Amino acid sequence: MQGVKIKCGLEIHQMLDTAEKLFCSCPTRLTQDPPHFVFTRRLRLAKSEIGEIDPAALFEYEKGLAYRYECHRDNVCLVEMDEEPPHNMNSEALELALKFSLMIGASIVDEVHVMRKIVIDGSNVSGFQRTSLISLGGSIDVNGKKIGIQTVCLEEDAARKTEEKHEGYVSYRLDRLGIPLIEVATAPDIESPEEAREVALRIGLLLRALGKVKRGLGTIRQDLNISVEGGARIEIKGVQYLDLIPKIVELEIQRQLSLLDIRDELKRRNVKEEDLVFEPVDVTDILRSSQSKVVKKALDSGGVALALKLKGFGGLLGREIQPGRRLGTELADRARYWGGVGGLFHSDELPGYGITKDEVEKIKTRLGVEANDAFILIVDSREKVMRALKAAYERAKEALEGVPEETRAANLDGTTKFMRPRPGSARMYPETDIRPIRITPENLEELRKNLPEPPEKTLERLMKEYSLPKDMAFQLFSQQQIYFFEEAVKTTGLAPQLIATTLTNTIVSLRRDNIPVENLTEEHLLATFKAVADGKIAKEAIPVVLTEFAKNPDASLEEVLKRAGLERLTIEELREIVRKVIQENREDVSQKGEKSFGKLMGIVMERVRGRIDGAVVAQVLREELKKAISS
């Protein structure tokens, strides 16, 4: 990747912890309970005010889905259901967006106008998301370099998807719909994968400094816009883990460079667009007796097997463009999304998957496949197969140009997959139900007086107040933990060093042991710290409790303690264990006397670890050892 010129920008979406939603008085609280009621809608596609249709909206509309909405009476009202106009904008959320804009030196608009952004994937009941431009320009400093901020917007969050297993509809829950979000979009000033992480960290810390932001997985989401020289702008949505950003950028650079290499190879082979002809060929009879489970299941259900020749693509469909992903995977992604099929087979991976060499040769003969050619094969209902083959064919044609512009979704391993076409300029239009909000110089002057301290000042203060070692304090800072650290210390009263060590060393150690620490929320950590403060567990049990929470994130503290066998020991129960250990090692005690304390302490701690404090164990052991020696 050395020497590769890239352009990269970030869009950070931070959920605000306001009392009410952005355009109604419902609380900003998510619910896990079963819904009180459900309703279903279908969304229609409309042209914009300038008579254009947004390509991303068209893509979602053509799926032909219905949307099932789950509602709770205590956090959903007629506004979310699109049965009532929006109320006035939440002033608390607007104030937070204005404060953030002042913190980065942005130019704030004179009037805030609410716009509608077309979104018809079902995540907004109305078919659009309300968003407002708050400021333009501004910058942040990252390692001595200025990173430009293009826009700061205030918008409503979307509904959260709960189910899409059923063919024909998708389920959403409306509790999240309408929660205020601050959206921060940077200029494409980022020049390396690690710098992308540093920029996201800096913006995240500034947002945290506001105080009223929601925390935990899913409350801050990063979108990346990446292109390499000669490539195309790719938007990658939904990056939730800060440490994953460098890997995603690196692998997207790899993907684009690989696609450019494939384009160049196709040029060397003199493959032109007119050489790629959409003429699917029915090969059902060839595969009728196939031993492939996928093929057999589809054909037994009345499906067909259609194949399509791709002239000049031999050996390229199997070329790796990201770890575990090939050009054939890109074609398969398009086939899945447009055709609703499970995937496709391509000639670079065949014979395989139960399809024999003889069957492959027969398909090649029927298609007229020559040395440098390839073919793709899809088995499903005829309607689905035709749509899927057409989508894969269109993606193959795009390979002649190199990198197609598109929106992609981030995978947990840092790779990405096709999500939808990139939206066009026809998706925004004015919201007619909400009046513009005037921002006066007096408003801004008042807000300037109450801006939060910069993150660096917070870091300096915490080091001084809590006597934290510099390296530990910077580790908390770089992991966006400085604000939670202070809250945990004030809430629980535990030693700052213990909390800081847990947030840095302990969690890192658990990650090395392949414990899924990404499942740990601040609620899990606070519950664990409070359990130590309340004497329910000893501090030695923290790694055990966090391990159980990571493996069972929906469990309560009581369930976790029971699973880990960490019910609190009484002093009398401890004495019984100590006496038993002394009795088991009576020969050692009689020979070494008090010098046997170290060995006995190790044995006792092994049996009681986490169920009672080590200092109490030491005190009881000394008492019982003294009795044993004098008896």
TrEMBL record:
One of its GO terms (cellular component) is cytoplasm. Its EC number is 6.3.5.-. Transmembrane segments: none annotated. One of its GO terms (molecular function) is ATP binding. Keywords: ATP-binding, Ligase, Nucleotide-binding, Protein biosynthesis, Transferase. It catalyses: L-glutamyl-tRNA(Gln) + L-glutamine + ATP + H2O = L-glutaminyl-tRNA(Gln) + L-glutamate + ADP + phosphate + H(+). InterPro entries: Asn/Gln-tRNA_amidoTrfase_suB/E (IPR017959), Asn/Gln-tRNA_Trfase_suB/E_cat (IPR006075), Asn/Gln_amidotransferase (IPR018027), Asn/Gln_tRNA_amidoTrase-B-like (IPR003789), GAD-like_sf (IPR004115), GAD_dom (IPR029351), GatB_C_1 (IPR042114), GatB_Yqey_C_2 (IPR023168). GO terms for biological process: glutaminyl-tRNAGln biosynthesis via transamidation; translation. It holds the Pfam family GatB_N. It is an enzyme of class 6 (ligase). SUPFAM superfamilies: GAD domain-like, GatB/YqeY motif, Glutamine synthetase/guanido kinase. SMART domains: GatB_Yqey (SM00845). Residues 483-625 form the Asn/Gln amidotransferase domain. NCBIfam families: gatE_arch (TIGR00134), PRK04028.1 (NF003107). Allows the formation of correctly charged Gln-tRNA(Gln) through the transamidation of misacylated Glu-tRNA(Gln) in organisms which lack glutaminyl-tRNA synthetase. The reaction takes place in the presence of glutamine and ATP through an activated gamma-phospho-Glu-tRNA(Gln). The GatDE system is specific for glutamate and does not act on aspartate. Heterodimer of GatD and GatE. Belongs to the GatB/GatE family. GatE subfamily. This is Glutamyl-tRNA(Gln) amidotransferase subunit E. It comes from Thermofilum adornatum. The gene is gatE.
